[in-house]
Amino acid sequence: MARPALLALLTALLVGRATCQMTMTMAEAPPGGAGRTPAPAATAGRRVVCPSLPAPGPSVKRFSLTAAKIQSKTQTLAYNGTAVGPLIRIRLGDEVQIDVTNKDIPEGTSVHWHGQAGPAGTMWYHSHTGEQYGDGLRGPLIVDDPADPHKGLHDTDLDAHVLMLADVYDTTVAQQLKDLESGGMGAMAAAGGLPDAQSMGGVPEQPQGPMGKMQVLCPPEVLNQDLSDSPWYGVQVNGQGWVTDPKTMQRAGQPLVLTVEQGKRHRLRLIGGMSSWALRVGVQGHGLKLIALDGRPVRPADAKSLLLTSGERADVVLHADQPVGNYWMDVSTISGQNSPVIVHYKGAPDPLGDKGFLATARADTGCAVGSPQILDLKNATLRAGPGLPQPPKGANKQFTIYLPDASSTVPPRSFLTHIAKAGNVHGLAPGSIPARGPSCPPAADGQPGKYCWSLNWNVYEPPSTVALLPGAKAAPRTYNLELSEGDVVDLLLINPSLMVHPMHLHGTGFWVLATGNGAAANSTDMLAPGVALNLADPPLRDTVPVPQAVAAPAGGKMGGMAGTTELAPGGFGFAILRFRATNPGVWSFHCHIELHASSGMFMTLTTRPKSNGTWALPDNLLCA
């Protein structure tokens, strides 16, 4: 019997003061995708109730989200007036209605149910309009599965142990983007990494003193990568944390207190709600056991700490096997800036009233590069957990996508040769690339370029309409891959930059067959023979951190890139993904670092249904 598909609203556009009601059924979906119900547009002052949606019955679970401006030092927008949106926790099989209201955001807003294409597990929701989620529009979404294969590995799974990690700033992400676009890549020095200001992203560390007074902990020859295009300000967990004003050096706020019970195994659900910085999480004196990624089970893996990038979710088990007391959970960057959480054992003294304990908080955790105790998800050998399907043994379509800074990075000659031909492996129309746009001219040799990240040197420009119907024309710089329902698709992602890019696909999950550094593509940009692929039990995910290129300390050029560093042995970073195109629709694929997506590191994949590749407009697209 066919399994029921998830009817999930993935994005709702709300303009002016408007409310949209949306219903979704949390049902088991086929691996790799499920159906979805598109959202109606809401006009100012109107409540939109789509006639194709059934009236909610008594068993429907209802939630309300109000997106609005707030006055706060570290965020300008919020759901329901709180630092983190309310927890939406439901069970597989539940029918859910969520009423979303835009109170006073003039440019409109939207809600993306991140990861919700069918599976149970740890998800989240956030705005997908402009740079709004980095300014505060984000919250946790948990779908519990009574048949969770790992439920025997933990004793508790509490709401209070759902942890939303977020980097916070005293300027809006939109203002950061404006500053970067006006200053270009030359406005940024590497974040504790390469000393020259011509690297491909990253910002300087702020020299500080104890707890909030950071030292530069990763020498350039050790770090050898860029960490963030956003300036460091602070991190909060569930809206709480110490933040130090870099101008006054005054510390404000307080750490989150996470209560555990001695002897019990506690499931912690970590959500990477950061807009820029990757964060390392570890509990002093304790180990962690990873049991799920992006809502899907993985074979349990032990580690002292793990590294999480934007958009990823990790479920870990913390065994409270130490003496009753208070312990620090470090939540820190790779280069060591720390915004810790307190792990409080029941029966221990109140940690917030213990000045002696608070004085032991670490301002820095040391350089995290190369530590064997850190589970780095971009290159860890992870296996799928029980109950997940194997990937198909082969694919009928393959696309190769480079992840460059479009201004400073010169496309390889082989790439330009390939895209001149129709049907190329990049899915590009002949002669369409490089499509940098007027704000992203190529940099002069040896000079920093403009700030414009891209996919295959296409700086994405959102179209006013999506070219779905026959005869429709795409907007300039719109980058779309055409798929047919049932296709098995391989994506070879090649990262020539010195930043890790967490790439996120809407509408379906994908198997991560391989990640690493080296020559993953042959001379025609197809997958090179000899690249080891895990076809037996690869993890099934919706977000993958693509490793940065390996750079040598000597100056020079990286594979023809102006103004960057010489490529070391090991080469470009890569990730190889495989998925089934079972979910008809237009799906976004983008870097989840908000500045990168907003500057152009974005594209779409259109999966056309089997019925002649066309579809009728659903009633609920016409009801507004």
TrEMBL record:
The keyword Kinase does not apply. GO terms for molecular function: copper ion binding; oxidoreductase activity. Its cofactor is Cu cation. Keywords: Copper, Metal-binding, Oxidoreductase, Signal. It comes from the Eukaryota. Residues 72-115, 119-147, 160-336, 476-548, 566-610 form the Plastocyanin-like domain. InterPro entries: Cu-oxidase-like_N, Cu-oxidase_2nd, Cu-oxidase_C, Cu-oxidase_fam, Cu_oxidase_CS, Cu_oxidase_Cu_BS, Cupredoxin. Residues 1-20 form the signal peptide. CDD domains: CuRO_1_LCC_like (cd04206). Belongs to the multicopper oxidase family. This is Multicopper oxidase.
